[in-house]
Amino acid sequence: MTGLVALLSALVAATQQPNPWENPSVQAENREPAHALLRQYPTVAAAIAGRPQQAIRHVLLDGQWRFWWVGRPDERPMGFESPEYDDSSWRTIRVPSCWETEGYGVPIYTNVAYPFRADPPRIDSSYNPVGSYRTWFEVPKSFGGLRKYLRFDGVYSFFTLWVNGKRVGFSKDSKLPAEFDVTPYVKPGRNLLAVEVFRWSDGSYLEDQDMFRFGGIFRSVHLEARPETHVADLRLHPGVDLKAGTETLRIEADLTQGQQDAAARLSFRLYDSSGQPVADAVQIQARKGTTTVEASQSYRGLKLWSAEKPNLYVLVAELNDSAGRPLQILSSRIGFRKIEWDGGVFRVNGRPVKLHGVNRHDHDPDTGRAVSYERMLQDILLFKRNNIDTVRT
């Protein structure tokens, strides 16, 4: 009888699904594929300028959110994602921020040791803080007929999100943006976003570095809208031939194409720092469905990028429907350089370069991992004043 009980117990244990924050075989649920940051602009001139505040179809959701923090997963509030849930007793927290710098838990610094009892992929449930967030947001009328996406630029270390009480998905990979298509979940007007964040997950075993450990939504949260037919990703591959004095640019674009825009066209054009075109536009006929298109162009006499002279150009991508109406206008800054290891010498554009580098983690003495633009700029200027030309981050 004892053997039978043991066998049944083993069978039950084998059929139980692991918690998603302790399952290394699954890194995300319903998360969009990773891609380049693609801001949309109303005009080519705005795209060349590239100022984030001129971007369209974008709402920043940062601000004061309702918040509840507990020290163990079994203490977290269940059902808080419901629009009917009463959060009047909850406090508020600034998003983005780190829990520990806002008075919840303590920051932990370790070098090579794990900050929790190691038992991969499991996490000790006796202390694994969970933060629950709620905020209401408006979907602009101008987003009607477009696909809507929520993007989290950084959350440590595992989070699940709901919109209007419906589960959307989850994500790990805390230092990378996580984006979700929420078109089926949102409605015009007011919507509820609920997020549950675990401080530790199986991903924390891989994210073990020499740094301070903080939890929470530590980077910005965005609502974006795109047409059914849109550029999903853009990859740029610049090349330099020093002997011939020529430069090349190979472009790869992933397209998601709606049924109504089977004849959409994509064009690319490179501009210099004064906003003048360097060459004629390259045009590509898009195909039905989601596909990757490629284009390339050659140039002569471009100003090369170096740490001393960081010359940059702007590539503008225009996506138009079959009638020539613009669907998207995107841009990306790009530099042309040649990096090589030649006979034990590191060279940039043919010239030997000695690297003066430092190691850096995102860190602010007041806000932890939640680093503002002003603090990042302060870091960069400090690097430049000390002749630092290489940063490991």
Any overview of this molecule?
A 7-stranded antiparallel beta sheet has the order 1-10-9-12-6-3-4, with no helix packed on it. 8% of the residues lie in helices and 39% in strands. Strand 21 and strand 22 (326-334) form a beta hairpin. The chain has 3 domains: 20-35 and 55-226, Galactose-binding domain-like (Jelly Rolls, Sandwich); 230-336, Sandwich (Immunoglobulin-like), CATH 2.60.40; 354-392, no CATH class. It is globular, with a radius of gyration of 24 Å. With 393 residues, it is mainly beta. The chain is built from 3 helices and 27 strands.
What is the compact description of this entry?
This protein is mainly beta and 393 residues long.
Main β-sheet description: 7 strands, antiparallel
N to C succession of SSEs? HEHEEEEEEEEEEEEEEEEEEEEEEEEEHE
Radius of gyration: 24 Å
The percent range for strand residues is 35-45%
What is the second-level CATH architecture of the largest domain?
Sandwich
**Class by SSE composition:** mainly beta
Number of domains: 3
As laid out across the biggest beta sheet, the strand order is: 1-10-9-12-6-3-4
Q: End-to-end distance, in Å?
A: 58 Å
**What's the CATH H-level homologous superfamily of the largest domain?**
Galactose-binding domain-like
Q: Which residue ranges are poorly predicted, with pLDDT under 50 across at least 5 consecutive positions?
A: 4-14
CATH class of the largest domain: Mainly Beta
Helix content: under 10%
Mean pLDDT: 93
Count every beta strand, where a strand is a DSSP E run of 2 or more residues.
Answer: 27
Give the overall form.
globular
User: Any idea of the CATH topology of the largest domain?
Assistant: Jelly Rolls
Q: Work out the helix count.
A: 3
